[in-house]
Design brief:
The complex is a heterodimer. Chain A is of the alpha/beta class. Chain A has a single domain, classed as Metallo-dependent phosphatases (Purple Acid Phosphatase, chain A, domain 2). Chain A has helices spanning 21-24, 27-30, 46-56, 77-86, 129-150, 184-191, 223-226; strands at residues 2-7, 33-37, 63-66, 89-91, 95-101, 104-111, 117-118, 121-122, 156-161, 197-200, 209-211, 217-220, 231-235. By secondary structure, chain B is an alpha+beta fold. Chain B has one domain: Alpha-Beta Plaits (2-Layer Sandwich). Chain B has 2 helices and 4 strands, in the order H-E-E-H-E-E. Chain B has a 3-stranded mixed sheet, covered by helices on one side. The radius of gyration of chain B is 15 Å and the shape is elongated. The chains are: A alpha/beta, B alpha+beta. Bound molecules: fe (ii) ion (FE2) (2 copies). The site of one fe (ii) ion has 6 residues of chain A, from loops. One fe (ii) ion (FE2) binds at residues 39, 68-70, 162, 202 of chain A.
Chain lengths: 236, 83
C-alpha cells in the first residue's frame, strides 16, 4: 500500500510564502510521496522557484513535480529546474522515475503536456506553421510521455501532467477554452500503459474526478479545485 | 468613464492574465447589466484586494462585484482509495 499526496497550481511567490506550510507539517504521517502538478510559480522566475523550494523542500517525503505553463512564462525554465533540483525536488518532463517505498515500487512519469482539445473538437496539424507547431508540440510530448509511462517497472504507475488528459475534469470551465486546457493525446498516452492513476492541474475552475476512455482514474488536483493543501490517494 | 461592453470584458480578462502584478488565469469575468462580476479563487486576501483595485483604477466607472474567494489550504481529512 502506498499513499500519494498531490496538489497542483500552488502559484508561489514571496507574498504567499508559508501559506501551505502548516498543512505540510504532518505530511510524512499522511503520505509517502508528494506530487506537484505544475504551475508552481506565478511567472516562472528563479526567485519564485526559490519560494517553491522553501515551501515544498525538506518535508520528510520525496517530492516529484512537473512544470506548468506559468513556470515557462519568464523563459527561465533552466534556472527554475536547477533551483528545484538543488532543493531535492525531482522535475519530470517526458521522463519517469521509480521510488522504492516501504509499501512497494511507485513509478511516476510526468510531463507538462499541452493543449489541442478532445475528441471531435480538437485542433489538427494542418495549415499555418503556427498551428502545426502548436499541435505538433502536443503530439510529440504525448508520444514521449507514453514511452516514459510504458518503460516504468513498478507495482503502481502514476501519470503526472499539468494539462488535462480528459475533458471530464474540465467541467466548470467554459467549453470554448477546453482546447487550451488539455489534449486527448495525453489520455491516449496514459491508456497505453498500465496506469493506476492520472493526476493533473491547470483547470482552476474544473472538477475533481474523471476517467480516461481506457478506464484510468483521473484527478484534477488544482488547488482551487481540491480546496485543501493537498489530496491523498491510497494505492492498494 | 469606461463603458462596460464585450470589449471591456475581454480587456479585463486579458489584463488579469497578462498584467505581471496579477498573472491569474483562474478568474472568471462576466457581466450582468451594468455590473462586472469577478469570480474564482486566489491565494491571499491581498491578491484579491489588488485585483479589485487594479480593475477599478484601469476601468473607472465600471461597477464591480468581487466574488473572488481566498482558497483554503488546510490539511485534508480524508483519503481516496484507488485500486
Ligand atoms: Fe494554474
Ligand atoms: Fe496552468
Amino acid at each position: 500500500m502506498i499513499r500519494v499526496a498531490a496538489v497542483g497550481d500552488v502559484h508561489m511567490d514571496a507574498d504567499v510564502l508559508g501559506r501551505y506550510r502548516p498543512a505540510l507539517e504532518h505530511l510524512p504521517s499522511k503520505a509517502d510521496v508528494l506530487l506537484l502538478a505544475g504551475d508552481l510559480t506565478r511567472h516562472g522566475t528563479t526567485e519564485e522557484a526559490e519560494c517553491v523550494a522553501r515551501e515544498f523542500a525538506d518535508l520528510g517525503v520525496p517530492v516529484i513535480t512537473v512544470l506548468g505553463n506559468h513556470d515557462y512564462h519568464s523563459d527561465q525554465v533552466e534556472g527554475v529546474v536547477k533551483v528545484l533540483k538543488n532543493a531535492g525536488i525531482q522535475v519530470l518532463e517526458c521522463a519517469g522515475t521509480v521510488l522504492e517505498l516501504p509499501g512497494g515500487r511507485l513509478g511516476v512519469a510526468g510531463t507538462k503536456g499541452f493543449g489541442g482539445g478532445f475528441a471531435g473538437r480538437c485542433a489538427s496539424e494542418f495549415g499555418e506553421p503556427e498551428m502545426k507547431a502548436f499541435v505538433r508540440h502536443t503530439r510529440q510530448t504525448a508520444e514521449r510521455f507514453g514511452q516514459a509511462l510504458r518503460s516504468l517497472e513498478a507495482d503502481w504507475v502514476i501519470a503526472l501532467t499539468h494539462y488535462a488528459p480528459v475533458p471530464d475534469t474540465l467541467l466548470g470551465e467554459p467549453p470554448e477554452i477546453y482546447p487550451f486546457l488539455g489534449s486527448y493525446q495525453l489520455g491516449q498516452a496514459i491508456d497505453s500503459a498500465p496506469t493506476a492513476l492520472a493526476i493533473h492541474g491547470h483547470a482552476h475552475c474544473g472538477t475533481e474526478r474523471g476517467t480516461t476512455p481506457g478506464g484510468v482514474r483521473v484527478r484534477n488536483v488544482a488547488q482551487p479545485v481540491i480546496r485543501q493543501a493537498y489530496s491523498v490517494f491510497q494505492l492498494s | 468613464m469606461t463603458r462596460l461592453d464585450e470589449y471591456t470584458e475581454s480587456q479585463i480578462q486579458t489584463m488579469l492574465t497578462e498584467d505581471p502584478s496579477v498573472a491569474e488565469q483562474g478568474i472568471s469575468v462576466s457581466r450582468r447589466e451594468n455590473t462586472l462580476i469577478l469570480s474564482g479563487e486566489v491565494l491571499s486576501a491581498e491578491r484579491r484586494e489588488h485585483i479589485k483595485q487594479l480593475v477599478a483604477s484601469r476601468f473607472p466607472g465600471v461597477n464591480i462585484r468581487c466574488e473572488i474567494a481566498v482558497s483554503r489550504t488546510g490539511e485534508p481529512e480524508d483519503v481516496e482509495e484507488v485500486s
